[in-house]
Amino acid sequence: MTIGSSFRARSFGSAAARYADHRPSYPSGLFESVEELAGFAWAGVRVVDVGAGTGIATALLHGRGARVVAVEPGAGMAAEFVRRNPCIPLVRGDGNELPFATGSVDVLTYAQSWHWTDPARSVPEALRVLRPGGALAVWSNDPDVGVGWIADQHARIEKSFGPGFYINDRARSQDGLVFATRLLRWSRQVPIEAHLAKLSTHSLFLIGRPGTQAFLAAERERLRELFPDGRLEEHYVVELRLAIRPERRRSAER
Fold it and tell me: What is the residue extent of each domain of the chain?
């Protein structure tokens, strides 16, 4: 993780409540796909949700019966998590140094958060804390740029602020881990103002970069012309990557 991305990673605390209110959830098919690829159901499974933020994914895992613990490094996001999920345990930390015993976890999940880690550290940590046969599940929830108006908006963002607005959590095969991949498409209908509020929770808009407020104001006018009834349909692509921890570590075989 670069210095710039570290700065962006720390920016979310100032907008934690807005983040929880307006960031999209996840389709049920995502969690069913994890069950299928991992080979076991969520109920009773020991899950650690890393980079949990305000708990959007964590709450869904809890609702499916997982024994889930959240890990969140940011103070503002952690406080909002506790406010909204008082019955779910949370510890402060990050994926580069997980505060869990070796072989103690059935599933590690990274919902929109793998890209904030250093894979040279987070992959060995995942291998350490997962039990043999445990699963590492990494997913992103990105706007579907195959939809015309979303592609146009994305192009305007990149023209104004440069590339890198949406960062995919693409975990690749490393240190004996082989990732299976699933793509799931889904959508939700929201008011224009909710969509703009969602945009404003991305790190690009939280780090004080000049022109962001003017961009959102101009975007409001464009969207009102496109969607005169004041509502629009956001389309998303969830990219899930899941790997099973080998029964034997490479280091143990040497």
Answer: 3-144+166-188+235-247
